[in-house]
């Protein structure tokens, strides 16, 4: 234990508290990835099995924090599923979460044999190495959801600062331990650096794209990842093309003019939807009803309860665009319309 380790644990604990508070304060879990939270539960339950045989008196600090991380992660999943509305994640996100989980399992033994030797073949050591690897990529579904969410989310700057500080302070803790008899282990250091890099890029994309554009209540560009480095290369498959949710704004961009500022968002405090997907059809309906061309409502037949999942799944796949324009991916509402505003 040293000062950096203690501060890191405090920041990690604060990030959990801030997220729970934000969900309750907004009465919504809009923009919070259920998949990321599920992966965190798997991480903590795999890593902290020693709670069953290590007495609390050995370290009350570790005992309390380990229990806190496990039960708060379960609580977040509970309120996301049973209490407050959330954005339903698309098929691509579920595939990404499955790849993160399966890849971590597959990499555990090779990584363990390289850095730990045959000790990784023991059940508890295997789970420990697995949890370290999985934690480094847990944030990927959250990154993808933030990229796809075009409305304000409950994730705020305080949560990102606490989460990023937790990883940064742990790096300082490892540097400090280099000068002590108890050297840091290589596996947590290597994958901790990977995790910290993803968090930093996550924060950079959030501040430069999501929060800045939402201060005026506007709708964000869902695929604009050009300001990010790691996230841009890992998740952006549109060739760097930013999507524009407003068709008139898209026409203005195509003509080389400045797009019109979006209408103010009237979704309540901070513009966060308190009913998540249930209000998306209303939001699109308002936009389409204000169209002077009299185009049909965006929500009719597209965002109903039975057809929404099919539409979202189709939106994720690399389906060819309408009109025979090749293999262009449909990334925004504007690309579903012809020039005259009809579907």
UniProtKB/TrEMBL annotation:
Compositional bias of kind Polar residues: 288-300
Gene Ontology MF annotations: ER retention sequence binding
GO biological process: protein retention in ER lumen; protein transport; vesicle-mediated transport
Keyword Lipoprotein found: no
UniProt keyword annotations, A-Z: Endoplasmic reticulum, ER-Golgi transport, Membrane, Protein transport, Receptor, Transmembrane, Transmembrane helix, Transport
Transmembrane segments: 32-49, 69-85, 97-115, 127-146, 158-180, 186-207
InterPro entries: ER_ret_rcpt (IPR000133)
Region (Disordered): 240-343
Pfam families: ER_lumen_recept (PF00810)
Major localisation: endoplasmic reticulum
Membrane topology: Multi-pass membrane protein
Family affiliation: Belongs to the ERD2 family.
Designated name of the protein: ER lumen protein retaining receptor
Source organism of this protein record: Cyphellophora europaea (strain CBS 101466)
């Amino acid at each position: 234990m040293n000062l950096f380790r203690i501060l890191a644990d405090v920041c990690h604990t604060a990030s959990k508290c801030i997220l729970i508070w934000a969900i309750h304060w907004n009465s919504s879990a809009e923009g919070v990835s259920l998949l990321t939270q599920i992966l965190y539960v798997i991480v903590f339950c795999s890593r902290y099995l020693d709670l069953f045989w290590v007495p609390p008196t050995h370290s009350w600090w570790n005992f309390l924090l380990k229990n806190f991380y496990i039960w708060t992660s379960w609580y977040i999943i509970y309120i996301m599923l049973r209490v407050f509305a959330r954005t339903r994640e698309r098929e691509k996100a579920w595939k990404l979460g499955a790849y993160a989980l399966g890849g971590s399992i597959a990499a555990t033994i090779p990584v363990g044999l390289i850095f730990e030797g045959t000790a990784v073949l023991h059940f508890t050591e295997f789970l420990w190495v697995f949890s370290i690897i999985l934690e480094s990529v847990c944030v990927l579904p959250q990154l993808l959801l933030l990229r796809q969410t075009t409305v304000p989310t409950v994730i705020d700057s305080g949560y990102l600062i606490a989460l990023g500080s937790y990883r940064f302070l742990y790096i300082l803790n490892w540097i400090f331990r280099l000068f002590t008899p108890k050297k840091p282990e290589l596996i947590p250091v290597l994958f901790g650096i990977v995790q910290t890099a993803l968090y930093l890029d996550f924060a950079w994309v959030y501040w430069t794209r999501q929060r800045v554009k939402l201060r005026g209540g506007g709708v964000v560009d869902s695929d604009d990842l050009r300001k990010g480095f790691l996230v841009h290369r890992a998740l952006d498959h549109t060739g760097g093309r930013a999507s524009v949710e407003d068709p008139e704004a898209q026409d203005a961009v195509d003509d080389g003019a400045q797009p019109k500022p979006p209408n103010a968002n009237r979704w309540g405090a901070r513009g966060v939807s308190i009913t998540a997907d249930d209000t998306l059809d209303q939001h699109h309906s308002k936009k389409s009803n204000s169209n002077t061309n009299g185009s049909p409502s965006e929500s009719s037949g597209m965002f109903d309860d039975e057809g929404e999942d099919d539409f979202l799944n189709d939106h994720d796949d690399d389906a060819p665009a309408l009109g025979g324009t090749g293999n262009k991916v449909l990334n925004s509402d504007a690309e579903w319309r012809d020039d005259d505003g009809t579907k």
